[in-house]
UniProtKB/TrEMBL annotation:
UniProt lineage: Bacteria, Bacillati, Actinomycetota, Actinomycetes, Kitasatosporales
Molecular function terms, GO-annotated: DNA binding
Name the record gives this protein: Helix-turn-helix domain-containing protein
Annotated spans, Disordered: 1-24
A Pfam family annotated for this UniProt entry: HTH_31
CDD domains the UniProt entry points to: HTH_XRE (cd00093)
Domain HTH cro/C1-type positions: 37-84
PANTHER family xref list: BLL4672 PROTEIN (PTHR35010:SF2), BLL4672 PROTEIN-RELATED (PTHR35010)
Record PROSITE patterns: HTH_CROC1
Length: 275
């Protein structure tokens, strides 16, 4: 386990500070800089806090700054909405999960609601599936696993991406997919504090690439997007997707993929659904 895991707030601020362009932030320098990004004292000055206080934040000696201070720092670092939400969650972590009678955290229910299962059965012409917060595939439409073996019930999207050799064949843009997968998981882990610790530790031990991406502290909001799939017997498909957080404490998310209106990809999806 990386030492960064003991101080997520400080590590996140440091990583973002190192990726911030000093010139964009308004810092004028006339000598060659020996470190990437902003220096601590530069960020502190731009955010209107003392350098000693900001240093305490990065070192983990103050883990609960005010929202006003965080807003000022976020503005300097030019954080997007997903990164800001992640920053708030680190400074005001969610309550620890309830413990069961054995003293272990309660497990997230894997049962998908009957109404959602009914919808999946009706959506015969769409690749769609439901995942848990740790990205276990809990239920799918019939079409989903025909397009991507990662979308088979019982698979885990993270494990497939990093541990299954088929992933690099299925995802032509594997590099981007892997980065987004880890960045999205980090955002989820902050919101469901403690529940994903064992899974993340296992993935870090199983994949050096996962571990390196996890330590980068990137955060990604997986609301919608596009993805390319290499489907055997079909070829390359370019699909868009939308995600829907299902109400309830389970943390389930519904993914729905589709081809752009009038595109060859949409026609291919329809043909596969009818076949």
């Amino acid at each position: 386990m990386s030492h960064d895991d003991d101080n997520d707030l400080g590590s996140f601020l440091r990583r973002r500070r190192e990726k911030t362009d000093p010139a964009r932030a308004g810092v004028v320098t006339h000598t060659r800089r020996r470190v990437p990004g902003l220096r601590r004292e530069e960020l502190a000055l731009l955010a209107g806090v003392s350098p000693s206080y900001y240093t305490r934040l990065e070192q983990g000696r103050d883990r609960h700054p005010s929202r006003e201070i965080l807003q000022a720092i976020a503005a300097v670092l030019e954080l997007d909405d997903a990164e800001r939400s992640y920053l708030w969650s680190l400074a005001a972590p969610a309550p620890a999960p309830a413990l069961d009678t054995d003293g272990a955290p309660d497990r997230e229910p894997d049962a998908v609601r009957p109404g959602v299962l009914h919808l999946l059965r009706r959506w015969s012409d769409l690749p769609a599936f439901v995942t848990s917060s740790r990205r276990d595939v809990l239920a799918t439409t019939a079409l989903a696993p025909r397009l991507n073996p990662a979308w088979e019930k019982g698979q885990n999207l993270i494990e497939f991406t990093f541990l299954d050799p088929r992933a690099r064949q299925v995802y032509p843009q594997w590099q981007d997919i892997s980065l987004q997968a880890v960045a999205g998981l980090r955002a989820t882990a902050a919101a469901s504090r403690g529940r994903l610790d064992d899974f993340i530790a296992t993935m870090r031990e199983s994949s050096d690439t996962f571990g390196a991406l996890w330590d980068s502290h990137d955060v990604y909001d997986r609301i919608h997007g596009a993805k390319q799939l290499q489907v055997p017997g079909v070829g390359l498909l370019s699909l868009e997707y939308e995600t829907f957080a299902l109400a309830g404490h389970e943390g389930h998310v519904l993914y729905v993929y589709f081809g752009r209106d009038g595109s060859d990809d949409e026609a291919t999806i329809r043909r596969l659904a009818a076949g």
